[in-house]
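Example (one chain per record):
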Amino acid sequence: MKSKEFKMPIFGVGPIYVITCFILTIVGLYLDLKGYLDQGDLSKGKIFFIVAGILLILLGIYLWVQAVIVQKINKKVKEKKLITRGIYSIVRNPIYSAFLFIFTGLLLLMANYILLILPFIFWAFLTILMKNTEEKWLKNEFGQEYETYLNEVNRVLPWIRKK
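Predicted structure:
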């Protein structure tokens, strides 16, 4: 069910999501570095947070490379093609996931439990944004094909499903 009214911009709502989360991450890091969040600093287990942060940053970079370079998402959007293979077979929005993981990784490096509120805000913001924009556009453009994909693949968290 192709629509002539397809209005999805090439970058979707990505700039709104990424810029907002980037600003919140920078503010959180700044507040922690300036000592405003000292009560949340963790002295024990700091290495765990640092390792987890590095791993999340690397995962985010991997997701971004897979979506943008390997799958060539910009080209597919211009061609109005739905990608459901490769990285898109385990997460519907790998670019947004990439930034979620990178920003969360940066926050984890600070080893401050107060900052761990932000990834939940990022996730909720993305969920609301996607449900009210891109998912509607894609349902309109691709119909049942997208509905099936929507039910089989997670929005943000990569997950390999057994078929």
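Caption: Helices lie at 14-33, 46-70, 73-78, 94-109, 117-132, 134-142, 144-152.
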